[in-house]
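Progress against Task 2.4 (sequence-to-structure conversion) is shown through the following example record, which the project officer requested during the mid-term review.
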Amino acid sequence: MTASWEEIKTLCDEAVRFKTASVCIPPAYVEPVFKEFGKSLVICTVVGFPLGYTYQPVKLREAGRALTLGAKEIDMVINLGDVKNGDYDSVLHEIKAMKRLCGKKLLKVIIETCYLNEEEKKRLCGVVTEAGADFIKTSTGFGTAGATIADVKLFKQHIGPGVKVKAAGGIKTRDDLEAFISAGADRIGTSSAVKLLSGGTAAGY
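Structure tokens generated for the chain above:
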């Protein structure tokens, strides 16, 4: 991450202007962004990012610090090694612990779909639902691929009624935005939101 404070401020100014649901920033910027923008912006930050294999107590400490400093939403990356080993109980335990910490603040669980087969995705829909998380999220944007329409549709078929879907990664055009919303995504994550909302097309992944 090489964004400067001036670039982060520009991002936050744009988020306020376009009234985005939240702005997702690195943990190190949570405190200064909260001091600068206060209640005019919902701050989201990431935990265990981007690989998810951090120790659970480290993830919880990281999230707790961010919440104390002003974050209102946490995006956590699950431990994909646990998934590949079939240890869904550990994934469930970690998400439950994180949701207890977040309380009424939103918890979005990133499962990084590009590394998973269909059965793993289905199982994780059940785990995220049972754990009480608020959102299941497709991708970090740092994997080998981002969100797909097929994955959003699969999520909608297998998550519980209390869980929403966030599609993120590789969403480049206004048509993409509309297609993912039509498929059932409740939120869209894209670093090119301003360009897309202004009618442009994002370059790159």
